[in-house]
Amino acid sequence: MANSNAEANPAKSEEILQISRKNYQIKNLWTIKVWNRSEYYPRYFHNAYFVNSHLMYAVFHNATKATYEYWRLTRQGNTWIPTEISATQSNFVKNNSPLQGFTYANGNFYLAFNDNVFAVNAESGRVLKHYHFHTLRESEGIAVKNGTPYVELARRPELLEIK
Q: What b/e readout covers 3-32, taking b as 16+ CB neighbours within 10 angstroms?
């Protein structure tokens, strides 16, 4: 997903690029724009997780309502259809730190903010677990394998296993 992480919540479109594994060229390009009920409530996604070429999950931080919204986008033909599936009534962290990693595994979303990882039930938006560690480094991304979260740390490449 191509977007500008410097944008707060514009009414701009975002691009989804599908890259060919054979030659690393753009295979498909879609432009999406999502609203919540009307054009006055745009949803600009900074983080998304692609399950396959027909399904992705995206997260939107609604700072004015202190809420994280979770969206399912399904592709039918060349059209992406958004559905809000749940929300968490929280800002998670108090220092306005941006979300630095987002993934989906086993019916849960995982959100990474610097030294914090939150596991959230995808259907209810309820926080299931909070992991806290002290690395003094930013998170660059998150993945989950066999129920264990792994965080990629910034500066020098290093993978942190969360227990």
A: beeeeeeeeeebebeeeeeeeeeeeeebeb
